[in-house]
Amino acid sequence: MFAGVGRISKNTFFKNISRAYIEFVRGVPVIILLFTVAFVIVVDVAELFNLRGNQIPMILRAIIALAFFYGAYIAEVFRAGIESVGKGQVEGGKSLGLTSKQIMRYIILPQAFKNMLPALGNDFISMMKDSSLLSVLAVNDLTQKGRLYAASSFRFQETYLVLTVLYLVITLTLSILQRKLENKLESK
Q1: Number of Cβ within a 10 Å radius of residue 6
Q2: What is the phi/psi pair of residue 9, to 5°?
Q3: How far is Cα 105 from Cα 164, in angstroms, rounded to an integer?
Q4: Beta-carbon contacts of residue 12 (< 8 Å; ≥ 6 apart)
Q5: 109-130 and 58-83 helices cross at what angle (nearest 10)?
Q6: Are 73 and 26 in contact (CB under 8 A)?
Q7: Using one digit for the tens of pLDDT, what is the confidence trace for 9-58?
Q8: Which of these, 107, 114, 137, lies nearest to 34 by C-alpha position?
Q9: How far is residue 32's CA from residue 18's CA, in Å, rounded to a whole number?
């Protein structure tokens, strides 16, 4: 949210930092960012705190990498959602004597959230699917378990068909839940 608000900020510094972060992430493939965050950035930051890189569990590195990657995409969703709320709403808040922070918190964000929900849901589902990429970091996720099982049992067909069905069931369930939440918010 902070990067999304930074993108529309009048403060040039925050605007440029947010834009650089978003453009950087959008310009690099997710698998490359996973490796860069897990094996370079996290290790370098750990050393700043006098920790060795191998003291940071790979699952934590993977979570940081996905958060870093999807944070940029979600920032753009927040930016677009905030910009979708009419300027008259801001003027109405000002006429009530609200501060800019109050206008954002009580007027803009609640309305923007309704507009953002489909895109946020889609990004969440994409992130869940992209979590399968974490197996390249040897994170013990569903895909890694399947790969290990298939390699030890030589039952590649069955294993990958089961993985396909599991991911499909998960994404369809999340899509149904997203639609129900959208319908519930629309009825209010």
Answers
A1: 21
A2: -70, 150
A3: 41
A4: none
A5: 140
A6: yes
A7: 889 999 999 999 999 999 999 999 999 999 999 999 999 988 887 788 99
A8: 137
A9: 20
Encoding tokens for residue 121? 């849901």
Alpha carbons 126 and 22: distance in angstroms, whole number: 17
Alpha carbon of 29 to those of 7, 25, 32, 128: distances in Å?
Answer: 22, 8, 5, 17
**Spatial contact of 40 and 16, defined as CB atoms under 8 Å apart:** no
The tens digit of pLDDT for each residue in 55-103 reads: 889 999 999 999 999 999 999 999 999 999 998 999 999 999 999 899 9
Q: Record the tokens describing residue 17, joined without a space.
A: 């930092």
With beta carbons less than 8 A apart as the criterion, state whether 128 and 120 touch: no
Question: CA–CA separation, 143 vs 141, rounded Å?
Answer: 6
Token couple for 9: 């900020």
Contact 15, 75 (CB under 8 A): no
